[in-house]
Amino acid sequence: MEIPEVPILFAKFANAVVGPGDPIIVPSISKEIDYEAELGVVIGRRARSVGVEAALDHVLGYTCINDVSARDLQFGDGQWFRGKSLDSFCPIGPWIVTTDEIPDPQMLGIRCIVNGQTLQDSSTEQMAFSVAELVSFISQGITLEPGDIISTGTPPGVGFARTPPIWLQPGDEVTVQIDRIGDLTNPIVTTSSPTT
Predict the structure, then answer these.
(1) Which of 51, 54, 134, 155 is such that its CA lies 20 to 30 A from the CA of 144?
(2) Does domain 14-190 have CATH number 3.90.850.10?
(3) How many angstroms separate the CA atoms of 196 and 65, rounded?
(4) Tens place of pLDDT for every residue, the chain, 196 residues?
(5) 97-129 in b/e burial notation, b at 16+ Cβ within 10 A?
(6) CA dihedral angle for residue 150, residue 104, residue 173, residue 88, rounded to 10 degrees
């Protein structure tokens, strides 16, 4: 995909959030489940209309995120909300590493490993928009509150862009690995039983 002139924003529902070791659930409505290793930025101080130069002062720390995406829904719907916000589609963790431990978030190796095979291997230095630029951009019209998390975009190597495509399947294990933060690993399972 072409690099956009400005960041493309979308939101995920809270029901998408799961932790390390929790299952990513493959729903019956999608056949094209994709992985996306991303750096997560945890807001520590309210950010409203902040400039790029002050943006990192509003960050508490960093974590790993897997921006799981149902590509058939994402591209079929004509917008990204449903395809990226299904239950369990936002694994986060394993912890938050504070900014005193990572003063420069643009110097971190980032990888996605599926069943032991490294499918994404890059650096946050290659991000289209830096963490500071993202915080500043979002805060111009949306107030960022403590505890908000920004997922910063994924490096090359995602499943839909491969030939042939690689989709996550029940029984797979996917790990997002970011230097100085850790490993976020989740199993892929079939749709869970409905509850009332």
Answers:
(1) 155
(2) yes
(3) 29
(4) 688 899 999 999 999 999 999 999 999 999 999 999 999 999 999 999 999 999 999 999 999 999 999 999 999 988 888 999 999 999 999 999 999 999 999 999 999 999 999 999 999 999 999 999 999 999 999 999 999 999 999 999 999 999 999 999 999 999 999 999 999 999 999 976 555 4
(5) bebeebeebeebebbbbbeeeebbebebeebeb
(6) -10
